[in-house]
Amino acid sequence: MKWLKILLTGIVVSLFYFPVTFTFFPVSNTKNLLGALGLVCMVVVLIKKEEFSLPRELLIFLLLSSFVSIASLLAININQTPDTTYVPYIRSAIIWLSSAFATCCIIYLTHKRIDVPLVVNYLAWVSVFQCAMALLIEFIPAVRMFVDANVQQGQALLQDMGRLYGIGASLDVAGSHFAAVLVALGFLMVQGKKERGNTPQLLLIIPFIIITIIGNMIARTTLVGVLVALAYVVLMELRNFGWQRYDKDYRSSLGSWIIALAILVPISVLFYNISPEFNKLMRFGFEGFFSYFEKGEWTTDSTAKLETMYVWPDNLKTWIVGDGYFANQRNDPNYIGTATVRGYYMGTDVGYCRFIFYFGIIGLITISAVMIYAGLIAIKAFPKSSHLFMMGVACNFIIWLKVSTDLLPFLALFATLAFLTSDLDFIRSKQGLDNPDKEEEPVPVP
Question: Once rounded to an integer, what is the mean pLDDT over residues 251-280?
Fold first, then answer.
């Protein structure tokens, strides 16, 4: 029964982190449904608290999110454009927070506790599931038919592009979400047994390698998380090696890496050599590495295109308030400028460029503030995990060098975890109960 509850909770986490719309219920996607459930959870928690007040941090976060909507309104009204892409941003932020709150509540009800390592483990194994589903959908026609018949996720376009997809996990959105999970796993790898929630190193390293390999086949944005996480692990291990003794935990970590690589790397090499389809996927996911070893230079098709997409405004007005276009301007019948042949407005897919062309530096600052403040909420609540959230925020800004997708779902999950943890502590103190998650002081032995 316990494993069934954990499985169902994992499904909920997946529907939050990789939201989808089901064909049998096309009215709303799973994020919105969880958002509605989250409002119910909030009411229940407030009733148990017997104090109907919202955290100050939540109100500030919502205020910053509203500034993004205001900046969008300012841009489209000044430029008289119909592109309202970021006008409802405040609504989107509320839905993400509410759905994240529902997800955290369900995890808590399943385990009677909730903390950062537990949430990271759910995100990691949900990501592994998405990677596995992507391969099953690609190689087993019956699985593809079943998923395509029940899930609406633009699969026709994905199939035309020849891209892998899971259940709600595809393209750069999946890549950015995988990247955030990888930095979280990298953080837990260098933590002690107590800090990582007694999770064996091997159960952190195995999902890390799986997501690294298959995640890059789905979207090469995953590589951002790989590089940030590995850089962090190497730096922390070097620091520990320099300042601490070569202890049992360090040897255990090294042994876990050796075991995981000894298992997964030969399997990947085997499939690379015997399966033309897997060979093609590997060469796509790690095109830069293959190019470097075969041609002596790091080049990929996407980076070559990306170099041509760094397009910047040529006037002060656009720099400040933007042109009011985020999507392709061809959607505007009144547009009289030069039409963009490919991609989005001005032919760029670069996050920073798209934001500036849409609502200028003003809008870029406001949306950046939302990401930073979400990270600060989590840092304040969980100071021992501050490196995790700083890397998460850093990944967001690095990814914007490539695409405009953000990591609000990841950051919102831990921000609402902070709110829920505070609420649970308040309820326990009001009921005169101790926090069951708090470690008891050791009793001295005479």
Answer: 74
- Which amino acid belongs to residue 54? L
Joined together, the tokens standing for residue 193 give: 């047994």
Alpha-helical runs (H) found in 140-195? 141-150, 155-161, 171-189
E-strand ranges in 287-342 read none
Cα 172 to Cα 1, 258, 275, 360, distances in angstroms:
36, 30, 25, 23
The CA R_g of the chain, rounded to the nearest whole Å, is 23
Neighbours of 288 (CB within 10 A): 17
pTM for the whole structure? 0.87
301-315 confidence digits (pLDDT tens): 777 777 778 888 889
- Torsion of the alpha carbons at 302, 303, 305 and 306, rounded to the nearest 10: 110
Whole-angstrom distance, CA of residue 429 vs CA of residue 397: 39
Q: Return the closest-CA partner of residue 210 out of 119, 126, 116, 302.
A: 126
Please choose, from the candidates 349, 342, 351, 357, the residue with its C-alpha nearest in 3D space to the C-alpha of residue 312. Answer: 357
Percent of the chain residues topping a pLDDT of 70: 85
Torsion of CA 114, 118, 119, 121, to 10 degrees: -170
For 361-404, how does the pLDDT look when each residue is reduced to its tens digit (9 = 90+)? 999 999 999 999 999 999 998 998 899 999 999 999 999 998 88
Domain ranges of the chain: 2-430
pLDDT at 439 > cutoff 60: no
**61 with 377: CB under 8 angstroms?**
yes
Q: Residue 318 contacts by C-beta under 8 Å, 6 or more apart in sequence?
A: 356, 357, 360
Rounded CA separation 295/280 (Å): 18
Asked whether the predicted pLDDT for residue 245 surpasses 60, the reply is no
pLDDT tens across 72-113, in order? 999 999 988 888 889 999 999 999 999 999 999 999 999 888
Element (H, E) at 320: helix 316-321
The tokens of 177 are what?
């979400």
Query: Which amino acid would we find at residue 364?
Result: L
pLDDT band at residue 433 under the 50/70/90 scheme: low
Contact between 176 and 399 (Cβ < 8 Å): yes
What's the CA gap between 70 and 116, in Å, rounded?
33
Phi, psi at 298, each rounded to 5°? -90, 105
Distance in angstroms (rounded) separating the CA atoms of residues 137 and 132: 9
Is the CA virtual torsion 35, 187, 129, 114 positive or negative? Answer: negative
